[in-house]
Amino acid sequence: MRPEDVFQNIRDLMVFGSSISDVNELLGVSTITTDNIYTLENGMLVEIGTLVYPVSSITRTGVAEWTFDVTGVNIVEVTWQLALYYEFGRALEVGNTLVEKKDDPINKNKRFPLMWLLTDIEKKEIELPGDYEASIVIAFIYLSEANLRASKRIDTNFEPILDPLVELFENTIKNTTGSRYFLKPYGEMLKISKTDKFKYGSIDGNRHIFNDISDAIELNMSLKFFMAGTACL
To answer: How far apart are CA 219 and CA 120, in angstroms?
Structure first.
């Protein structure tokens, strides 16, 4: 299995969701009742229908019942899921894809948070046929504003949105079924280097990745892929 497909599967494992059993509206805020929040945290974003909402006021109200608030009304959908979107390729290609989504009434809000696998990827065969090692760069990206100070970016983008997504990604490839894609000798840890990127990709001329003002956490990893992505028994 190619790395591009492996990380699509990893993203799919990360995007948990659950049912909506009730919605109560008050002063422009909807309180959602659900049977599971998994690892959802205040400040993270959820997708409900065609819209994406930041979550607040997560509360456990029963043995298998939670509520959380979103700013919005007239919610009639019966499910929600974690908002996280995946693309791979070079910046220009992915940027064009995001522009196309922005112009699509159904998908215009489903661009960020973005999990971007940077290409090109050099693969080196190791050990058994089908096993290979590759240097992987993945960025978790969220839209931002041009004039925010660094401290405000941490408060509004990194701590509530990007940090939890990166933690969820690490847990998925280390401790859940996502780890089946990777060869890891006993006792060896997967080593991930993380870099906070303020105004991601900004250079002289005020150009930015995908021509959007964004903040990101970039992950650099050297990973050994196990037998083309089959399960490790």
So the answer is: 15
